[in-house]
Amino acid sequence: MKGNIISQFFIIMFLTIGIITSAQTKLSNPFGLVYKDAITENVPGKVNIHPVSYKLNGIDIAANVYTPANYDPSKKYQAVVVAHPNGGVKEQVAGLYAQCLAELGYITITADASYQGASGGLPRNVDKPAFRIEDIRGMADFITHYAGVDANHLGLFGICGGGGYSLKAAQTDKRFKVLATLSMFNSGVVRRNGFMNSQLSTIQERLKQASEARALEAAEGEVRYAGDTKITDEMADKMPFDLYREGHYYYNRTHAHPNSTFRYTMSSLLDLMEFDAATNMDLINQPLLMMAGSKADSYYMTDDAFKLATGTKEKELFLIPGATHIQTYYVPEYVDQAVGKLKEFLGKYL
């Protein structure tokens, strides 16, 4: 009995990990970018990055806009909104793909979610689906009024958790003419059931904890957090899933950023656990591309959502041979395949 309790404790701990990067992390890139071949300076005639800020429902949002080579604000460009993964920030994989799309000639924007990263909002690290979906709409609000953007040719690309929230945003916001996802992660389903349904037995217990956290916030202002465990390499190596094991090394070692954390307010679970990115998929009538690694243990989420997308006549599931979930974030051969597919998809439909 004791062994079972210990085993359950470690599984729950692993599945609610908080990859907490040290605030003392030194970033050599002047824009804070941590991906390979990132822009280090704005050179005339090349792809440039433009840090911007704007208000969204009273909150200051921090974003980066990427403009293509030889950008001329008097001309018209197609644009793509890029939504970052859970716990991620605009300087990591979202920035990599935003830069790659700018190299293809698109104006792109990627922003830190409200309450997260360099964006405002208190308490910190609130992670509610409604807010993340609104963040995507807010990026669309901003970029469609950016000099040179053709608002009639706006695409949406979401990665990991940002992919799940992009599915929901595109269901109702028809400013997005096309939709693509990479390594889509259905945040609500995983927060409720656990990764690969590994936490079904603790749903009610975790809902009780979230309810108590909400009550404590209201009564005393104290904020409780989930995923606030400091993970060591040794602990990560024993994790049962590639997504979490490789995620530790990506977010906490190879592509660490001081604003990136998987910590989130415990009370957020009240919203997360009743959310499902794959509901109402029939509302998506735009061309849809869903990409995932063929070896990704998160692939079941992409597969489930894709099957439910019955409202669009143009949809494609693209598997990247040999890639796991996290490897699609940075491994050159897998990134190149994803970008190549995006080039084909956007060129055809946007």
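That was protein one. Protein two is written in the same sequence-then-structure order:
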Amino acid sequence: MSLEVTGKLLVKYDSQQVSEKFKKREFVIELAEEINGNIYTNFAKMQLVQAKCEIIDRFKEGDLVKVSFNLKGNKWERDGKVNYITNLDAWRIEAASAAPANNNGGQQYAAAPAYNNNGGNNSGATNFNSTPNFNPSPETIDDLPF
């Protein structure tokens, strides 16, 4: 499964030689998402493996980057107990400015995402019908003719 995410590069860790045949390098991306006028920040730890470990060297902490990655998971058993691990395996990293302008209309990362924006009214009002610029999500619009 291949996915993409754009965010701020927060931390780059050194490469780790896990075994004779496996090398990895972890990094953290800060992601911001606006939901109903509130901005939520998430932190995703991702990894680069083998020869890909060096592709993050051209970026510095604080840079806006677009990361293409695969979602991978493993299952193993130890001492009769089943364990699972999920990895976000990055395979491409680009400067966010090189990304197409589909990221919130080309707005900068520091700005709140444009969807469901209530016209800058961040008062936390819960009565959406009285909010002048309420823009409901497509799932909440009832466009049936009856």
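The first strand starts at residue 2 and ends at 12. Keep this in mind for the problem set.
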